[in-house]
Amino acid sequence: MLEIYTLLNPKVANYNGTGGVPNITPEDVAACLGRIPITGPGLLVRAMTGDATCYKPLTQVFGQHLAHRAMLKHWRTGPSFYHHLDGLRDAALHYYVLPDTCRRCRGQGHITQRDTQRVQCPICEGAGHKDVRESDKARAAGIPWASWSDTWADRYVDARAILADWEDQADRATRRLWWVDS
Questions:
Q1: Other C-beta atoms lying within 10 Å of the C-beta of residue 53
Q2: Is the Cα torsion angle 49, 55, 60, 64 positive or negative in sign?
Q3: CB-based contacts of 149-153 (< 8 A; 24+ apart in sequence)
Q4: What are the strands, taking DSSP E only, across the chain?
Q5: What is the pLDDT of residues 103-124, one digit of tens each?
Q6: How many structural domains are present in the chain?
Q7: Which parts of the chain sit beneath pLDDT 50?
Q8: Which residues are registered as beta bridge partners of 112?
Q9: Max CA distance (Å), the chain
Q10: pTM to 2 decimals?
Q11: How many CB atoms lie within 10 A of CB 66?
């Protein structure tokens, strides 16, 4: 997905050896986004690139897909099922679109010691982000811990799989537009 961000952000440095800022026009960005399906994948990419206007439609579309997945997988229902499903939707979107960047290395994966030596960040172990604890996910979803660990943790994985699939679809659409090798 890094290629999409590189192509969509006209302020990014050009890493092809020539230096400078790439000549990506607003029309290029619009053409790139136009090739990504406007449903889930397009909305997800727009949200991940900072377009706050698409977060509400993304929440609605993702909620519909998640409810469909629940029906197909025969997730048991209960008195608070739909409330928990909405919480699961919100938590999965939050942690997917706005990942928890490591505060120590600020997402770089390394820190500089003694002004020259770069070492792997001891907090995130080079990942650039911290893993979100299961208890944080349950709290964000508003689901009691006992229900989360027994039932909803696996459903959270399913929800993230939908988002990962959408990101992959958007990535493939962008690669086709810009002729980037897979």
A1: 8
A2: positive
A3: 151/76, 152/84, 152/88
A4: 110-113, 117-120
A5: 677 777 888 777 778 888 877 7
A6: 1
A7: 1-4, 10-14, 182
A8: 118
A9: 60
A10: 0.68
A11: 22
